[in-house]
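User: Hey, quick favor. My workstation is busy. Could you predict this chain's structure for me?
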Amino acid sequence: MSLIEIAPPAFDVIHDIAYARADNFTGKPIYRRAAAYLHADAAERLTKAITLAASAGLRIKLFDAFRPSEAQWALWNHTPDPNYISDPRKGSPHTRGVAVDLTLTNGSGVDLEMGTAFDDFSDKAHHGNTSIAAEAQRNRMTLLGIMTAAGWDRYDYEWWHYQLFDVARYPLLGDDALDIGLM
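Assistant: No problem, here it is.
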């Protein structure tokens, strides 16, 4: 199975691939290069989300997409918390190429306020958390509406994580699924 690279001009997204930098929760880069890939089914739904966001004057910023199983192990070995990191023995929607971590930006590319940073492993990051500012709640609901309308499912503990429904039907993939690996 081939994965599709999610990058301009084919996909009007902003890349901010968190695991290609040291300023992620592990404190070191996980990926050797900053790139995003998805299964064709997920890429099709992301295209719809990009169109819906654009109709509201917004853009999508990607933090992560396909995550090789080797990267999933690195994250799990650092923080083996199944509420926020999928056990690599079971697999993650990311290691199947059918999940995205993202946020919304305004027309100038400034992130909308979401109440927490990406990869905040606290209750404040959960969908429906009302302890965050009203503006952040509205922005999360806007993101949820866009992604749901585009055919994505949410993960309750992370406002930034969306995945396809029925993820188990997609195979787990390693870095060798790419012509030029991320690891």
